[in-house]
């Protein structure tokens, strides 16, 4: 039987630390790290000015990203995707990607309070001034209204990190 790689992906509110955790997991699992922010900025460097623009361009790259990730997983290489899996629909996209090729997955849910996320977003604005336009409290609240906590009915291999403590 073929030994496919494992897909790691993330769920958590804006500012929860998904990108930071993705880098750590990639290193720990000898995985290829694929960042949505990197792909979007490389392909659409000036087009994304609003949240709706982000949704549009994110959806445009997904078919290519999906086939690319499936090819990597199919040769036995682990992949960490720093793409949001914050809604049932987004998580379904990730799990279908795995089911189609028989690959395992882990969804890492970073469960932080709004206050913790906003604090981390404020730090990020200082550390990464290019992101200041989108890293605001208003954007946080706009994006958070769409957030859906993972449920048992989604049949996910879920790793939950609550307040920095990991539970399976």
Automatic annotation (TrEMBL):
SUPFAM superfamilies in the record: P-loop containing nucleoside triphosphate hydrolases
Highest taxon, organism lineage: Bacteria
InterPro entries the UniProt entry points to: P-loop_NTPase
Pfam families according to UniProt: AAA_33 (PF13671)
Protein name: 1-deoxy-D-xylulose-5-phosphate synthase
Organism of this sequence: Pseudoalteromonas amylolytica
Organismal lineage: Bacteria, Pseudomonadati, Pseudomonadota, Gammaproteobacteria, Alteromonadales
């Amino acid at each position: 039987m073929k030994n496919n790689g494992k897909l790691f992906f993330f769920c958590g509110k804006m500012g929860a630390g998904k990108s930071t955790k993705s880098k750590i997991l990639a290193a720990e699992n000898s995985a290829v790290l694929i960042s949505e922010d990197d792909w979007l900025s490389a392909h659409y460097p000036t087009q994304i000015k609003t949240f709706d623009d982000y949704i549009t361009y994110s959806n445009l790259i997904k078919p290519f990203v999906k086939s690319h990730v499936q090819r990597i997983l199919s040769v036995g290489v682990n992949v960490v995707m720093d793409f949001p899996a914050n809604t049932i629909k987004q998580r379904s996209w990730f799990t279908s990607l795995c089911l189609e090729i028989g690959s395992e997955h882990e969804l890492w849910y970073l469960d932080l309070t709004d206050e913790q996320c906003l604090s981390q977003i404020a730090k990020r604005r200082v550390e990464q001034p290019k992101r200041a336009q989108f890293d605001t409290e208003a954007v946080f609240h706009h994006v958070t209204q769409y957030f859906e906590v993972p449920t048992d009915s989604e049949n996910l291999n879920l790793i939950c990190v609550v307040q920095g403590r990991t539970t399976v």
